[in-house]
Design a protein that fits this description.
The complex is a heterodimer of chains A (517) and B (563).
Chain A (H helix, E strand, L loop, with lengths): L5 H18 L4 H25 L10 E7 L9 E6 L3 H18 L7 H20 L3 H10 L1 H11 L4 H29 L7 H5 L14 H15 L8 H8 L2 H26 L1 H6 L1 H20 L4 H20 L12 H31 L10 H4 L1 H14 L6 H16 L1 H25 L16 H19 L2 H27 L6
Antiparallel strand pairs in A: 1-2
Chain B lengths: L2 H6 L1 H19 L3 H11 L1 H12 L20 E3 L10 E3 H20 L1 H5 L5 H20 L3 H19 L5 H32 L4 H8 L12 H18 L8 H7 L2 H26 L4 H23 L5 H21 L2 E3 L6 H6 L11 E4 L11 E4 L2 H31 L10 H4 L1 H15 L5 H15 L3 H27 L4 H4 L15 H19 L2 H11 L9
Antiparallel strand pairs in B: 1-2, 3-5, 4-5
Helix pairs in contact in B: 2-3, 2-4, 2-7, 3-7, 4-5, 5-7, 5-13, 5-17, 5-23, 5-24, 7-8, 7-13, 8-9, 8-13, 9-10, 9-11, 9-12, 11-13, 12-15, 13-15, 13-17, 14-15, 14-21, 15-17, 15-20, 15-21, 17-19, 17-20, 17-23, 17-24, 19-21, 19-23, 20-21, 20-23
Classes of the chains: A mainly alpha (517), B mainly alpha (563).
Chain lengths: 517, 563
């Protein structure tokens, strides 16, 4: 089933909503309710996109394509080209889901409400655009479009050292995208048609090859990697993340951790794995090394945190490191690469999005009511806020990889895949999961349980509206945990062609018939 | 000199005539609004002549067959009669630059009607001098002969020097003085470079120089000869004054801070544009045989200029000084496009450029094969592929930069006339007080970073494409990293406008006393601001026509060498 324009509508509906708020609507209440409606509509649209994605045998790899020539072929051969494949369809769903949750999580915003929702909705359009663009120029356009809304959200409605954190986020991301811009330009120049078409670069027949590329392929690979690693974030370019997360308002943290970090992982899978099969196998050891460092370093630092948001932020560094570990699975012996590691990496993007989103929504609720995120000051909240505490606990359990919840599925896939390639590294990264059990349980114990405190005596639980995102995200965590095929079979339609390309490339290399540089 | 020659320089002549007319009208009429209206309306004359040139290159006298817009017929009309043959070229390149000059002058006039009304004296002279400078710029865009180039350069600069010193305060006088002295030094250098080139080639026309340079030269010396080497180096330093590029950039921040804002807006856009036009014509017409030498020179100059400009801008507290340093940085970006000239064969990605052109005669894809003027000369040996990519990216970027920078300056002009300050810290609360001005300035600054969807982003992509195609990927990387540095200081202004608490200067607006501090923004300024703002954004989305016009304009450039 293919509906032309469905994807375009899904991407631009939030932006249209923002425009309507800018021009038409006045009054905080009206704006808030309207934003909620837009978010709900976009969630339904993204569900429609996900469900209408044909995952059967023989279905086209890219579906729901909207394509218009943007610039004449003579100058910059770019087009407005949207489409989804098995990798991006779940990401669209994730963005719709978390965007909706973020709007509800913003219900308590009282300052400059109109402006706030305009930025939040613009942000959603930008992220949706990144996941659905199949033209590099358009991809970059959406990639940059996300910067200013997020900057504004953190700098205006954040807490603590908000302007510092916002600027740090901006500079890190722009630096990464500067590298990416050069790489995109070089890729376009290298193409025989000067085209920015990403689908061509995924096909073995039309893929970049070392002889015709304007820059060495390995350089291009690392230029792209720089941009995505900043976003992921991988050690050592992760330092913007704890600051940005800690000082951002709840909804911005949800969007930041839930979907924007996924742009980095998505880019790695789509570009670095999909378009540079030779380089990704050659450098797999380095990717998995960075991944393991991120996992362990993130976990060790997390244990030392006393601020709830900072703790979740560092745990994100650790968990996103698993994406790199999963990608490292392509370093298996020539022709032996399986889809497990890459599927796990892709799954990790989705599951970490929902889990961390839930964690941030829960912590946001606690902060809003208890007015502190300092763990030693908290305690005994479970009795006062049973719903919020239960949701937070479920998210915590999913985060530490409890079987039956979604986090377990992606982690086990990552480890299965990576073990075939780098057993020692994989075992080291499993240590990160053990540490995760430590810090998550410790965090839950100190903040939710323990003796009740006098000053929290009049805390109220989550209101019905506030419980909606908690329920939605818990549901997604449980469903994916029990029936992962719901997602994996979709992811696999995109991963298996990539694996085939990698296997054929590495087979050629090992046979010595062709250099894959 | 025939009537046809006069027709060909009619845009410049009508511009100069308008200048005289405006000054005379100022003497006669007591109604000062009339002078502004005349200056603005009078621009229709040069505009009409440029458009006539494009569609009727042969004039009304000869039955026209050619059409510059479509590139059929004669591509370039050179003045061949008269006593200085080959001194001016009227082609699509000059038409493109002239349109840019006239359009930006019109917008500047529109935005500054209120500003000029409030000048204590010399209102007519303000318009007259601006128009005179514009006629010099238009002459410069067409000049193909050393003496003409020099005259046009002086005609461009001197009226602006007078305007820079217009205001009765010390900063303005300082701006005028610096502009004059450094301008004089660089024009002396330009003249010295020209003398060396003339001495070596025996010709003052670019065509003659190109032919002479094609002759047997030493291949162990850059540019084939010490005379040419020193000549080009000195000439480049001279032209760098107008480009606001290193090493002749030190006047920029002071003039931007002290001179009247409308003049700075015009200077930053039009003067820079024609200076690049001159550089392109010089290098791509007269010195094309030595593209390898000057390409490397300009690439290094570009890297230094953009980095120095951006680093210096980081520390500025005055928004006009900051934009002064930012214009230096942008001169660096633009130089990337000039340096991205051509590439010797054997570059895989290069063939793609030819395959881009569906038809051989489409000027927009003019991938012209140039054969060496002199076989066996190693510096120009073999054949190389010349594409219009680098120079046309410069032209597009100039248009996009004009839109964004004029937006910024019009917003600053409007804010300045309300709060009477240019300090960035005084911009606190501007968003709440003047939301449209703040949004316009924010869009302009975002555009100047080079973030989509704005014209400069497309221009930047285009420049980077040109650089990578010319194997200047390192320069592309330097440029991309520089835009990160620039993001820091541009975003800082946005942050102050949108987030900082209301400053005293903003709070004082409309509180009485000072007459100029009314809360109302001139409607003319708002219209001009709206136009440039729309152009800034539209150029980022619907840039096709401008890209094609730029490529068409550039395809007229190497016409001298191609027989």
């Amino acid at each position: 089933m293919s509906v032309p324009g469905l994807l375009t509508l899904t991407v631009f509906l939030p932006a249209l909503g923002a425009l309507a708020i800018l021009i038409l609507l006045r009054g905080d209440r009206v704006v808030r309710c309207f934003a909620l409606l837009v978010g709900l509509a976009d969630l339904l649209l993204s569900v429609a996109v996900f469900l209408s994605f044909d995952r059967g045998e023989g279905a086209a790899r890219f579906q729901l394509i909207d394509r218009i020539t943007w610039i004449s072929a003579e100058t910059l051969n770019a087009s407005y080209f949207l489409g989804v494949d098995g990798l991006s369809a779940p990401m669209v769903l994730l963005t719709g889901l978390l965007g909706f949750c973020a709007i509800i999580a913003s219900w308590s915003i009282r300052e400059r409400v109109r402006e706030y929702f305009i930025w939040l909705l613009l942000l959603q359009t930008a992220v949706m655009g990144v996941f659905t663009s199949l033209d590099f120029l358009l991809f970059f356009l959406f990639w940059e479009l996300e910067l200013l809304p997020m900057y504004m959200l953190i700098a205006n409605w954040g807490t603590g050292r908000k302007t510092y954190s916002a600027m740090k986020f901006l500079i890190f991301t722009i630096l990464g995208s500067a590298f990416m811009l050069v790489a995109i330009v070089a890729v376009a120049v290298s193409q025989a048609t000067g085209s920015f078409d990403m689908t061509l670069l995924l096909e073995p027949a039309t893929m970049l090859d070392g002889a015709s590329a304007a820059l060495p392929l390995s350089l291009l690979f690392w230029l792209f990697f720089a941009a995505f690693a900043v976003k992921l974030p991988a050690w050592p370019v992760h330092t913007w993340l704890p600051d940005a997360h800690t000082d951002a308002p709840t909804a911005a943290s949800v969007m930041l951790a839930g979907v924007m970090l996924k742009m980095g992982g998505y880019g790695l899978l789509r570009v670095n794995v999909g378009m540079f099969p030779g380089e990704v196998t050659a450098f797999a050891w380095l990717l998995i090394l960075l991944g393991v460092i991120s996992v362990l370093y993130g976990a060790v630092v997390t244990i030392r945190q006393t601020d709830l948001k900072r703790l979740i932020a560092y745990s994100s560094v650790s968990h996103m490191g698993l994406v790199l570990v999963g990608i490292g699975s392509v370093g298996a012996a020539a022709g032996q690469v399986t889809g497990a590691g890459l599927n796990g990496a892709a799954m990790q993007l989705f599951t970490h999005g929902t889990i961390t989103g839930l964690l941030f929504v829960g912590v946001g609720l606690i902060y809003e009511k208890a007015h502190t995120r300092y763990i030693p000051d908290l305690g005994g909240l479970a009795a006062r806020m049973p719903v919020a505490a239960a949701a937070l606990a479920i998210a915590g359990f999913a985060s530490l990889g409890l079987p039956g919840l979604s986090g377990f599925v992606s982690e086990i896939l990552v480890f299965f895949g990576a073990f075939r390639a780098f057993p020692v590294m994989t075992i080291l990264s499993v240590l990160g999961i053990i540490l995760a059990a430590g810090y998550i349980l410790w965090m839950l114990e100190r903040s939710l349980f323990g003796p009740q405190r006098e000053r929290f005596a009049d805390l109220t639980d989550a209101s019905p509206l506030e419980a909606v995102p908690l329920a939605l995200l818990v549901a997604s965590i449980v469903v994916v945990g029990i029936y992962p095929a719901f997602l994996t079979e979709v992811f696999d339609t995109a991963i298996s062609p990539m694996v085939d390309v990698i296997n054929s490339t590495s087979a050629l290399t090992s046979a010595g018939t062709a250099g894959a540089r | 000199m025939t009537l046809y020659d006069i027709y060909l320089i009619a845009p410049q002549l009508s511009m100069a005539a308008l200048a005289v007319l405006v000054v005379l009208a100022d003497l006669v009429t007591p109604r000062k609004g009339l002078v502004s209206a005349l200056a603005l309306a009078g621009l229709v004359a040069p505009l009409a002549f440029i458009v006539l040139h494009i569609y009727m290159p042969n004039g009304l006298l000869v039955a026209g067959t050619g059409n510059l817009a479509e590139g059929s017929g004669s591509d370039s009309m050179t003045l061949l009669t008269g006593f200085l043959p080959g001194s001016l070229a009227v082609d699509r390149f000059s038409a493109f630059m002239n349109l840019l000059v006239v359009a930006s002058l019109g917008l500047v006039f529109l935005s500054s009607i209120d500003y000029v009304m409030k000048l204590p004296r010399l209102r007519g002279e303000f318009y007259g001098l601006m128009l005179l400078s514009a006629s010099g710029m238009m002459l410069l865009a067409s000049a193909t002969e050393l003496i003409t180039i020099y005259v046009a350069l002086e005609l461009t600069t001197l009226p602006l020097v007078a305007i820079a010193a217009f205001l009765p305060n010390a900063r303005s006088s300082e701006a005028g003085m610096k502009f004059l002295v450094i301008g004089a030094i660089s024009s002396a250098l330009t003249l010295y470079g020209m003398a060396l080139l003339y001495g070596f080639s025996g010709s003052t026309t670019l065509e003659g120089i190109a032919l002479a340079l094609g002759g047997p030269l030493r291949d162990d010396v850059p540019f084939g000869s010490y005379a040419v080497l020193v000549g080009i180096a000195v000439l480049t330093v001279g032209i760098a004054f107008k480009l606001s590029a290193i090493p002749s950039q030190m006047w920029v921040p002071d003039v931007y801070e002290g001179a009247p804002i409308p003049m700075v807006a015009f200077l930053s856009v039009a003067s820079k544009a024609v200076a690049f036009a001159l550089l392109l014509r010089f290098l791509y017409s007269g010195l094309l045989p030595y593209y390898g030498d000057w390409g490397a020179l300009l690439a290094i100059l570009a890297a230094i200029t953009m980095t120095a400009g951006n680093l210096a801008a980081l520390a500025q507290s005055n928004i006009r000084r900051l934009l002064g340093y930012s214009t230096i940085a942008h001169a660096g970006y633009l130089l990337v496009g000039v340096a991205a000239v051509a590439q010797l064969g054997g570059f895989g990605g290069w063939a793609s450029v030819d395959s881009l052109s569906p038809s051989a005669n489409a000027p927009s894809a003019a991938a012209l094969m140039l054969h060496s003027v002199q076989e066996g000369d190693s510096s120009i040996g073999g054949s190389f592929t010349f594409t219009t990519f680098g120079p046309s990216s410069v032209l597009f970027y100039l248009v996009a930069y004009a839109a964004a920078n004029l937006t910024a300056f019009f917003a600053i002009l409007a804010v300045h006339s309300r709060i009477g300050s240019d300090l960035i810290e005084d911009y606190g609360g501007v968003f709440r007080r003047f939301p449209f001005l703040a949004i316009a300035l924010a869009v302009a600054l975002v555009a100047l970073i080079g973030v989509p969807p704005t014209g400069i982003f497309v221009g930047k992509i285009y420049l980077l494409l040109a650089a990578v195609k010319s194997e200047l990927a390192w320069l592309a990387l330097v440029g991309a990293i520089n835009s990160v540095i620039s993001a820091y200081y541009y975003v800082r202004i946005i942050r102050v406008m949108f987030m900082a608490p209301e400053s005293e200067a903003v709070a004082a607006v409309g509180m009485g006393g000072i007459q100029s501090r009314t809360a109302r923004v001139s409607p003319f300024t708002l219209v001009a601001l709206g136009l440039t703002l729309a152009a800034t954004v539209l150029l980022g989305i619907l840039f096709g026509p401008v890209v094609q016009a730029a490529e068409g304009a550039v395809s007229a450039l190497p016409g001298i060498l191609i027989q």
